[in-house]
Amino acid sequence: MPRRPSATPWPALLVPAKAVNLYLAYAVVTTTPGGAWDENTLTGIETACSLLLLTAALTESLNYAALRHRALPHRWLILATCLPTVACVRWGRIVQRYPG
């Protein structure tokens, strides 16, 4: 089925949103606390995880809107579904490794 041209520039909306998601995912994965006593870093990681989940949900809703209008291919959903998984896994590991 041919794609019809869309009036909304979906890539112009989605590329900056995905860049924010990737930045948050990088911060979530690369930030390491100094130990169980490093409460500020642990809180920062948990905050970055929650922000990543929020921005990924917003980006995914934009993806679905673009797919509904048949403006983008389905491969645009790959990143939007992988990044919340990264956030959940990291948040779970932080909670298990540093309880309290």
List the helices and strands and how they pair.
Layout: H1 10-30, H2 39-68, H3 77-97
- Order of H and E elements: HHH
Separate helix tally: 3
- Radius of gyration, in angstroms, nearest whole number: 17 Å
**Distance N terminus to C terminus?**
54 Å
Which regions are unreliable across 5 or more consecutive residues at pLDDT < 50?
Answer: none
- What count of domains describes the coordinates? 1
Q: Main β-sheet, in a few words?
A: none
Shape: elongated
Amount of helix? over 70%
For the secondary structure, the number of strands is 0
Q: Hey, roughly how much beta strand do the residues contain?
A: under 5%
Give a structural overview.
The mean pLDDT is 87. It contains three helices and no strands. It is 72% helix and 0% strand. Helix 1 (10-30) runs antiparallel to helix 2, helix 1 (10-30) packs parallel to helix 3 and helix 2 (39-68) packs antiparallel against helix 3. It is mainly alpha-helical and 100 residues long. It has one domain. The termini are far apart.
